[in-house]
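Re: [help] complex structure
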Amino acid sequence: MRFLTSGDSHGASITAIVEGVPAGLPIEKEYIKKELLRRNKCAGRSQRMALEKEEVVILSGLRKGLSTGAPITIMIPNSEFYDLSEAQILQIQNDLPVSRPGHADLNGMLKFGFKEARNVAERASARETAARVAIGAIAKIFLKEFNISFASAIIQVGEIKSSKKITFEKASKLDAYFPFSDKNRKKAVLNLLENFKERGETVGGKVWASAKGVVPGIGSYTNWDTRLDAQIAYHLMSIPSVKGVLIGDIENAVSLKGSAAQDQFADSSKIFYKRKTNLAGGIEGGVSNGEDIVATCFVKPIPSSKFSKKGLNLQTKKKQAPQITRADTTSLAPVAVICESLMAIVIMQNYLEKFGSDSVDDIKNNFSIYQKRLRK
Amino acid sequence: MRFLTSGDSHGASITAIVEGVPAGLPIEKEYIKKELLRRNKCAGRSQRMALEKEEVVILSGLRKGLSTGAPITIMIPNSEFYDLSEAQILQIQNDLPVSRPGHADLNGMLKFGFKEARNVAERASARETAARVAIGAIAKIFLKEFNISFASAIIQVGEIKSSKKITFEKASKLDAYFPFSDKNRKKAVLNLLENFKERGETVGGKVWASAKGVVPGIGSYTNWDTRLDAQIAYHLMSIPSVKGVLIGDIENAVSLKGSAAQDQFADSSKIFYKRKTNLAGGIEGGVSNGEDIVATCFVKPIPSSKFSKKGLNLQTKKKQAPQITRADTTSLAPVAVICESLMAIVIMQNYLEKFGSDSVDDIKNNFSIYQKRLRK
Amino acid sequence: MRFLTSGDSHGASITAIVEGVPAGLPIEKEYIKKELLRRNKCAGRSQRMALEKEEVVILSGLRKGLSTGAPITIMIPNSEFYDLSEAQILQIQNDLPVSRPGHADLNGMLKFGFKEARNVAERASARETAARVAIGAIAKIFLKEFNISFASAIIQVGEIKSSKKITFEKASKLDAYFPFSDKNRKKAVLNLLENFKERGETVGGKVWASAKGVVPGIGSYTNWDTRLDAQIAYHLMSIPSVKGVLIGDIENAVSLKGSAAQDQFADSSKIFYKRKTNLAGGIEGGVSNGEDIVATCFVKPIPSSKFSKKGLNLQTKKKQAPQITRADTTSLAPVAVICESLMAIVIMQNYLEKFGSDSVDDIKNNFSIYQKRLRK
Amino acid sequence: MRFLTSGDSHGASITAIVEGVPAGLPIEKEYIKKELLRRNKCAGRSQRMALEKEEVVILSGLRKGLSTGAPITIMIPNSEFYDLSEAQILQIQNDLPVSRPGHADLNGMLKFGFKEARNVAERASARETAARVAIGAIAKIFLKEFNISFASAIIQVGEIKSSKKITFEKASKLDAYFPFSDKNRKKAVLNLLENFKERGETVGGKVWASAKGVVPGIGSYTNWDTRLDAQIAYHLMSIPSVKGVLIGDIENAVSLKGSAAQDQFADSSKIFYKRKTNLAGGIEGGVSNGEDIVATCFVKPIPSSKFSKKGLNLQTKKKQAPQITRADTTSLAPVAVICESLMAIVIMQNYLEKFGSDSVDDIKNNFSIYQKRLRK
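Output below.
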């Protein structure tokens, strides 16, 4: 499965083409839309999000509700865009002469040879992740056939850390609006968000995401780029505000002695490869070991807000206050959804590689052969 | 530039084929060997390393000391291997019936259908990284033509953290044998290593690596997989003992307010895009901004040592003590070198994509056009 | 530059996402549309083509008429589709229980596990090539900046062969409606098409296509997949009705002696690498030599028409007459346009690789450095 | 499965790294060597070939005779090379100031910025194909597990065409030394070769190659680059002297009426998808249909020999006689072997994609599920 995404933040639509989805998968637009809304209707987001209706149009690859094996085209129209006159479009896509630090603005202007930042800001926007959440929704539908499920949580907001150890089960029960993992401190967090919103301040934190049900043997150590942890890091680090990716509980393990940092085999379990702990986050040697796949993302505060007093005007080479186009307080809640989506994409790709392609039924048969072999 | 590596830990050689190195690059075997020895002759490594002579044989792609544009084949023979009889080879490649937790062993056995772990352990071994250090050496030679240099440091060993803020300049001056960044605590660290070695214990920590001199505009936000930070994370997370990758100073920024987490433009500088700080680690929006590229790796303790009392015997399905084949105390020092190498590979690939290919002279000319445009 | 296409023949639209088009390219929708109509409004095509309006919608990647470096999304809506009710859509996408020999029908049904052929026929349709003609139009706009132009011709229709040697100049002057290269036999050809159309018969032939202005040094012999001729063959052989690809005049050279099959250097020419002949079709050793790039495609007769009396009904396992959904007499004229488009795509990709990316202006500067070097 | 090859014609070795060969495949060096010798010890080749001993060294990926899933490194040493002094190496790799038309020489010199042709000639040499024949041997071993076999034949030498229709069965019985398909004309052909050899003349022709036993459903029409015919054309056109690739009997079909150009379903057969004819060469719509996969290559006469009177000296910009380093009379017999090898590689890659990866036993189980589905 491979894909390309496209679309400008204030353009006609966000679009994705996904090639290699096997035939026979029941894909409901409503489920994709639901995932998109999880990314959108959450605490910490600005008014603009309310305008994004996240309608999903599937332009190809689906017939009678089932995937056909042909490329699937998902379009998420910017509904507001279609009622605009040419002049209005030029207005909302106006020139941005001043670059904002923390964004791709200046780097993109230098890279491509632009005098202003609009051309950069449109595509460097995190709006692109909507396309990948849509693709992730398809991956989740696929992986559900193999009993794989996903959960995520926010475990730190600025200086406020969750005091509880997060687990898949706990994360599954958190509310989608703002899945902070520590009930006792959630009110403090929401107050902080409210307060920051008023002041035009922003905040970062940490997001935890996990996949349950992945069989052992996914990913490979045979070349560097097939390692499952490396693939997950590649995808998660591509989320605009993510600047750090950890697998499992390495933040803790980094200061442990080796003898204390092992996930010992369970003393007795129906599943012979079961472990007592999961410091490794379900991946050893680049290959899944049957435990939950676990990753944590470090999320930076959104860099532009009222406080962005000094950007750079490339034409005057002077510092100047930039035009601020968005006002989310934090990207933590959307990042949680995006993490799940990207993990789902990676795992689906690896399942297809291991268990074959083309027909969901065939793949399920192949998978059950593998499961039988594991049990032997 | 693309490459494949091969080679089994106790096999005939580690080999790499590198396609797309432009013609006209002066490649000295001695420099590659020097980089390989940096990975090898350092504190925390076992006796076996002393045996690895890291001779470098270049089988193709070089003539009269210059790259020819043809694929370069680098072979690092396991010199010990060549004097062995067939029987001795079988002996050092003996069956490993018991899998070790923390390694790919069991996962690889289940994946490929093996009854024992030798077939897995040979390739899942970190010995593979020698090939990438050799490729990285070529990348460093290439990037030197563009005034890019690399440095790395160990900033945490187990519970002992460096108390100093690391910088490129400081890292450049650390000794290669064990580049711990805090002079005052170095003795404590070396004592810890000595003590752990005696006890057969292992330890992890954190490694910092950086590239200086990368121009703004490298990497791209246009699709997720072209983002420079994502590419770096992909490569670094593929290092066997690395389980976490951070870009810049996100560990700090994660709890800052947005207004405090920006890298403001410098007040006055000959370089108009110069920043006052570098929290972003030289990458904003997936694109280089001209500051040092900075990444930190979280390194787990080596999972197998004398303490590995309980592995799994897949044939008996019983827990059992595994055969321990290596005894490094920590992989921190080699990881530092490997990080530099992989960053060099990523940056070289992005330079080739941006500034063209084939001839080093042409690329340098194209690069100088870009530099002129930036200065305008 | 990479791309994915999508879209079902009787679905909502044909779509393409193109990543890596450098910034600053003036892209006019009208030009893309013109190229699409060349593919469509030509002799040998059925009534349905008249319905295809080939409107072009660019959903992203363009601002103020210039490419922005962001992915370009081109949508070619099936205009008829949008006025249809759900029931009508089901009607035009009705089940096709009988597979047609010569098409992907049965093979696709077996591959994906379908009981009927509609799911296959929708995507295996040559309608997909519209997306690549649109991408090719962008490539042509790009390559025009480097003085590269394209021409094509039909040189054989069934048993009627052109008696003239085709050249780039002659091909440039042929009419787009049916660019048969032999004026004297054109009437016979059009009569044949008319006659075959009435009888529901189809016909194949040969198509010639060429690119003028490609500098020496494009493509590479360093690994098999970088060879320019191999890349061209890959693309051209992917055109649904093409079953053969020749480079240059190999059909002739195959029976010549070696001494007679060489393109000798010209006796005197301002361009030192100029040749007297071009048997090699502008490519020697997988690399362009400065002569016109020339390829010929062998095109099979469209396999389904009134004569398709016996397909296979997979449910009954009986032979049966298939439903015939299209009635073009020949695909020769569209194939000519598609060949140009695909050659343009390949050449653009190789130019970007050799001369760098991101900004059209930068690339042109890099290119002129190369030209200066060649002249030295 | 992916691979890179390397090696210079007069360098230390030809090398290949192959990643993704599933575990459990019995790989015998002797079989690889046998395939290499088929490429080498045949009519039309020069004395030098007698020197190439085609010893095969497998440096990794094999243990106890079985593939381990790790990358396989195949080295074919240039045995003569190892006994040479540094001075002798410089001698056999001496500068080639004069480029030869028909070769990559001048194009490569211009591309990479060389003043002489040695750097080009070393890698552009057809010697590289030895690496791919070795990889193809592994692919054949793999595909034998799925009852797929290969055959090839020479069907035209210069002006002498075989008068017989070639079939898989006939091709299987031809002698490896020079598998010309027409017994009656073989003497004439060998005389021609002898005569040409004496005169230092060269000759081209046509090579036919085929794979038997490929199940329907391999390859895909869903995107252009997954089409089986396109993939085969990509590989075959990358053979240095091949300038044309045809699939099936298109040379004939190109002038047939559509009603006569169909491969009708057989009237009665145990295999329901069996056809009466195989004009399509086993591929319809880019997907295998269960018939033999058939391709024909157009091979140009080797461009350099005694007759190469005029090359170009880039330093003087004058025409001049080039140094002639090889003296094969024709590449037809090696091309036949290479064609089989490359078809095997393509088909293996597609089998792995469709039926999964990692373990030969698993893949065979998955395959048998598919076969059962087909029979239903």
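The longest strand of chain B covers residues 149-157.
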